[in-house]
Structures are given as structure tokens and as C-alpha cells.
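Re: the request from the purification team.
They wanted to know what the chain is likely to look like in 3D before they choose a buffer screen. I agreed to run a prediction and write the result into the notebook, where they can find it.
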Amino acid sequence: MKKGDFVKIDFVGKVAATGEIFDLTNEELAKKEGIHNDKQKYGPILIIIDSGMTIPGVEKQLEEMKNGEEKEFDVKPTEAFGHRRPELLKIISIAKFFKEKINPVPGAFVTIDNKQAKIQSISGGRVRVDFNHPLASRELHYKLKIVEAIEKPLEKVKAIIDHFTIKCETEYDEKDSKITIKTEKKMPHVVEKLLEDWIKKWVSEIKSINFLLKEKKKVEEKPEIKKDR
């Protein structure tokens, strides 16, 4: 594989030192290991190589693999989630949590100041919070397989749309290198811009993108049938 290639992968990610699974795509394995999450979508995931959709250590391995190949490897912290940084340990007033309607509980993961953090302890109205990534300073172990290489422009566009879980219909005019994306409701501008940027950057065959609303089907009114009295 090379930079810019679209692939779908199955993988299991573990903490190398303990064997603890931190992420995986196989639903049956998740159930077997007792870590199944009803809110998680299982199955092969899209990776565009060199897009930052996964950690550098995984991207580097993908570039050395072929479609259908399976591989196991370790990833050092420097090519995963980095090393822990003491400056990312913060003390925050408990009042801020209450203001944002967050119940601070030691060990819980929360989103505060638009960042994910783990609450370490609470003392005297002060909350000690760790903004380091949970896997910082950890060496990781991956078992990974490339299950599909996506090559056609329309399929690449559909893969990007599916990655962002957007419901729509797509049409591809190969002659004019144009993609038309149809939705039931007007898509927010920021979402349109996000899709447009990704498609233009990673699907070079597409030169034009058009966003349209689907035409609503007219419901034919049935003629009123008068009953004889």
C-alpha cells in the first residue's frame, strides 16, 4: 500500500505489557472477551493511509502490507499516543464541573474544556484531572488484516460518507468527474465543507461536488367517494 490508498481493516489492539484489549473491530470477539459495547459499530473500518485516521505506527505497517495480508506487530509510544506529560495534569474547581452539569467521580472519563480527561481525585472542592491520553507511554500490540482495498472513485466517496455516518444518496458522473450528494434535509454547512474537503483531498478523480435535496414524492389524493344515504 502507499500514501493516499483507501483500505478497510480488521484489527485487535492490546496493551503490550498486559494483553488488555483497548479496541477491536470483531463483534464476536468483543462478546467473548466480555467487552462488547452496544453503542459501538463493529466491522472493518476505513483507513486512508497518511490521513491521520490512525496512529503513525499503524500507518507505517500498512504501507508495507498488501491487500488480504494479516500481520502482528508492536508500536512504541513515540509512534502511538506519545509519552505522558506532567503539564497535562490539572487542578480544576469542582464548581466548574457542576456548572457544566458533570458529576465528578474518581476514575471517570469526562469532557471538559472540549477535551477528554480522566478524573484522578477530589479533595476540598478541587478536582485533579489528567488530560493525557489513557494510552500515553504504553507500548501497543496490534493484530491487523487488510480486508479490502478501495480503488473506484465512487466507492471511495461512499467510504468517506459512511465514515462520517451521513445518510445520503450519491451519483457519479464519470464524464464530468462530478459527484452529486442527495440528502432528505439540508446538510449543515460545516458538514458539507468537511465532506467537500475530504473528497477533494483524497479522491483526486473528483473535480466537482454538488449537494442537493431529494425531491419529495407527491402523495396522490384519493378521490372522495360519496356514499348513498
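For the purification team: The CA atoms of residues 24 and 122 lie 33 Å apart.
Please add any questions underneath this entry.
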